[in-house]
């Protein structure tokens, strides 16, 4: 963050936010040469549009920053990406505290880079830096930017460098950094006995599966359990994916990455919760030890599951983890998973589909999702569709036939492993930007993280 923000500077270039509606008013308060340059460059103050203005000596004096007033988070993102090195100061006239906070976060996200595999990965000595806006909670801004950056980094990492062992090490590092603990289970015999679905999904891989349990916070605080699907690479198993569908399967641990990013944000900001993060870290590989269509697994809860499709493996991993979550008597369970293509058909790549067993928690997401521009959309837990999960030989089948309502039937499958009286949110996410926008480069993305954090913060508050 030192390369993104500065605390003080002898001089800085003004960043002046403008919209098409406010442009003329802003120009009235500036020198006449501003208006002449706006006309000469046909600057319309559209979102993401920048206009650099020089002083009389030819040095950069100010930048007009086009933005949308209803998207404060991305106000400065294009400027952070596109401006030359130097120190910049945001003109805060007319901007309230929440807008300033979001603009600062957007600046940080605009400076995000993933360059681990670039051979020209050089330190940017003259990177653009923002002078901290007055009154902004700097720690909170940095925590949000780093949480999202951490999530993106994990998803963007090549699968060979982020198999279950590396994901477990990352969770351990995160826990230690914030005074928490991480328990890692990797013994194959214990996994087969205590985590049978997770073991079955990962047993064909040369990379041993892990069950990760991160704990933090006072034990007498409300119990919050975050559950993440950590399929570090998904070939589809014996129901192998076509090459086009397999290309981005490094992101199939996007749920785990999101809950780790969110956990870091919760711990750093000190939410008043007893946090538990549960991750099943596996590789769904093809081999002589692969689980098969037609197999029947007995889940951790004791329920039996007929395997219809080995590419519906994520819900099997979550089934075991959700049963463990039940034992913690949680005030809320929230799981994140790159679970179904059906959710992408329903809401596209840029919205986090979610399901909720509790209407109050569903409503609690609305305001932070809007204010943090982190769109979520509730899909129904339509109980009559449970008939699609009926099995002739077991308690339930892991995938419905016919291809209809796939996101809903996956959520209904998971609901079987959550007690009826436990508030539960299930996020079915893309975890990936398929196009680049200011502050949102193509690649890994933390969908739903800001929305849920805002709801958690309002419900539970902070310690101290």
Layout of helices and strands:
Elements: E1 5-6, E2 13-18, H1 23-28, H2 32-41, E3 50-54, E4 60-66, H3 77-82, E5 86-90, H4 97-110, E6 128-131, H5 138-156, H6 164-177, E7 181-185, H7 188-194, H8 196-202, E8 210-216, E9 223-234, H9 243-246, H10 254-269, E10 274-284, E11 296-298, E12 304-306, H11 314-326, E13 332-337, H12 341-347, E14 352-356, H13 359-364, H14 366-371, E15 376-378, E16 396-397, H15 406-415, E17 424-428, E18 432-433, E19 443-444, H16 449-460
Parallel strand pairs: 1-6, 2-4, 2-5, 5-6, 9-10, 9-13, 12-16, 13-17, 14-15
Antiparallel strand pairs: 3-4, 7-8, 8-10, 11-12, 14-17, 18-19
Helix pairs in contact: 4-5, 5-10, 7-8, 8-11
Tell me the name of the CATH class of the largest domain: Alpha Beta
What proportion of the residues is helical, as a percent range? 25-40%
Oligomer: single chain
Backbone structural class: alpha/beta
Q: What general form does the structure show?
A: elongated
Low-confidence stretches: none
CATH superfamily of the largest domain: Zn peptidases
DSSP strand (E) fraction? 15-25%
Sheet with most strands: strand arrangement: 7-8-10-9-13-17-14-15
CATH architecture of the largest domain: 3-Layer(aba) Sandwich
Q: Would you count the extended β strands for me?
A: 19
**What is the CATH topology of the largest domain?**
Aminopeptidase
Q: How many domains comprise the coordinates? A: 2
Radius of gyration: 24 Å
Summed over residues and divided by their number, the pLDDT gives a mean of 96
Keywords:
single chain, about 475 residues, alpha/beta, Leucine Aminopeptidase, subunit E, domain 1, Aminopeptidase, 2 domains, eight-stranded mixed sheet, six-stranded mixed sheet, 19 strands, elongated
């Amino acid at each position: 963050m030192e390369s993104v923000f500065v605390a003080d500077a002898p001089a800085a270039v003004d960043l002046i936010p403008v919209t098409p509606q406010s442009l003329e008013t802003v120009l009235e308060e500036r020198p006449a040469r501003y208006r002449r340059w706006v006309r000469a460059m046909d600057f319309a103050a559209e979102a993401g549009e920048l206009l650099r203005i020089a002083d009389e000596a030819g040095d950069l004096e100010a930048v007009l920053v086009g933005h949308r007033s209803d998207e404060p988070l991305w106000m400065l993102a294009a400027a952070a990406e596109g401006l030359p090195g130097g120190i910049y100061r945001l003109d805060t006239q007319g901007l309230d505290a929440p807008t300033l906070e979001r603009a600062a976060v957007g600046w940080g996200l605009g400076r995000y880079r993933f360059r681990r595999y670039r051979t020209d990965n050089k330190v940017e000595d003259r990177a653009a830096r923002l002078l901290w806006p007055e009154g902004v909670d700097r720690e909170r801004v940095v925590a949000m930017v780093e949480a999202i950056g951490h999530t993106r980094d994990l998803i963007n990492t090549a699968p060979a460098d982020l198999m279950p062992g590396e994901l477990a090490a990352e969770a351990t590092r995160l826990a230690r950094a914030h005074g928490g603990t991480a328990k890692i289970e990797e013994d194959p015999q214990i996994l087969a006995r205590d985590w049978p679905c997770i073991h079955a999904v990962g047993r064909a891989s040369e990379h041993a599966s892990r069950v990760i349990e991160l704990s933090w916070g006072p034990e007498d605080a409300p119990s919050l359990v975050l559950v993440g699907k950590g399929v570090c690479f998904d070939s589809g198993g014996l129901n192998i994916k076509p090459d086009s569908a397999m290309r981005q399967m490094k992101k199939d641990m996007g749920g785990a990455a999101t809950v780790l990013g969110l956990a870091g944000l919760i711990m750093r900001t000190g939410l008043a919760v007893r946090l538990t993060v549960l991750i099943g870290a596996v590789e769904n590989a093809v081999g002589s030890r692969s689980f098969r269509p037609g197999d029947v697994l007995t889940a951790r809860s004791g329920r039996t599951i007929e395997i219809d499709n080995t590419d519906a493996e994520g819900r099997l991993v979550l089934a075991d983890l959700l049963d463990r979550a039940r034992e913690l008597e949680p005030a809320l369970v929230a799981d994140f998973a790159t679970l179904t293509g059906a959710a992408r058909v329903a809401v596209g790549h840029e919205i986090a589909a979610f399901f909720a067993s509790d209407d109050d928690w569903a409503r609690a997401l609305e305001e932070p999702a809007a204010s943090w521009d982190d769109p979520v959309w509730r899909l129904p837990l339509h109980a009559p569709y449970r008939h699609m999960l009926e099995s002739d030989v077991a308690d339930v089948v892991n995938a419905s036939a016919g291809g209809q309502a796939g996101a809903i039937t996956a959520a209904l499958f998971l609901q079987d492993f959550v007690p009826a009286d436990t508030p539960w949110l299930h996020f079915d996410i893309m975890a990936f930007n398929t196009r680049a926008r200011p502050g949102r480069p193509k690649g890994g993305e933390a969908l739903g993280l800001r929305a849920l954090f805002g709801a958690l913060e309002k419900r539970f508050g902070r310690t101290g």
